[in-house]
């Protein structure tokens, strides 16, 4: 037996109000309309909803139970309406972000934390991955926004939209107090005896590092360790005299992470970091608001 949920909501209001007149005023209808609704519902279920000749109206056991269900329906409807409103304003929903591991570790997580503090009803999934994996995910609609170097996207690609966020460069990184890091004017020859920490075969940072070292005359660098884990690489740098090549954003500017940047400029290592989205996908308010927040936070940090 199907019962119109609107009738159950109206029944709940009648039970709460105690009179048809007060209930009708409360929901903006007429007393005769509510009387007809009660008569039709009683005929449909074959049982009375109210004890006869009682003031205020006293529900029967089935009337009381159906009114309880009506209150649940009303609560669910109001909650759904609230969620739709929050979603339309970007304050409800799930946002899926993708970024390279070092960017997740030391940049995006900080931006996400500030965004979530103002929007407790949303959830953000931050997915660390490399170039190929991130591009696959965005085409499969598994992420809403990829945050990474513009070189992730081939020139002339019209499937994706790139919104520049900040300019960065790759740098040589080691522990604070590293003898070579502290050298005021190191030469390329100073780095030829260095032991290096490498990067995952899937990372564009691996090829960036190889290119940078080749331009310094280092064609066969001694690699002691390589990993796809950003935390593992950073911890090894802190505990040894090994060096590596990282994006500048991966190092805390105040040195609080125990790392420092060498005083040497790497050739051909400048890059633009962008927010990358799929052109054909309709952008939600939540996505738009996060990108605006992201750009604002990164502008404050990098000054672009």
Task: Predict the CATH topology of the largest domain.
Answer: D-Maltodextrin-Binding Protein, domain 2
Summarize the helix and strand pattern as letters: HHHHEHEHEEEHEHEEEH
Overall, the morphology is rod-shaped
Major sheet characteristics: 7 strands, mixed
Rounded mean pLDDT is: 90
What gyration radius follows from the Cα positions, in whole Å? 31 Å
Binned, the helix content reads: 40-55%
Percentage beta strand: 15-25%
CATH class of the largest domain: Alpha Beta
Number of domains: 3
The overall strand count is 9
Can you identify the CATH superfamily of the largest domain? Periplasmic binding protein-like II
CATH arch. level architecture of the largest domain: 3-Layer(aba) Sandwich
Structural class based on helices, strands and sheet pairing: alpha/beta
Query: What are the low-pLDDT stretches, counting only 5+ consecutive residues below 50?
Result: none
- Oligomer designation: single chain
| Number of helical regions | 9
Distance between the termini: 65 Å
Tag the structure with descriptive keywords.
seven-stranded mixed sheet, alpha/beta, 9 strands, 3 domains, Arc Repressor Mutant, subunit A, D-Maltodextrin-Binding Protein, domain 2, 43% helix, two-stranded parallel ribbon, 304 residues
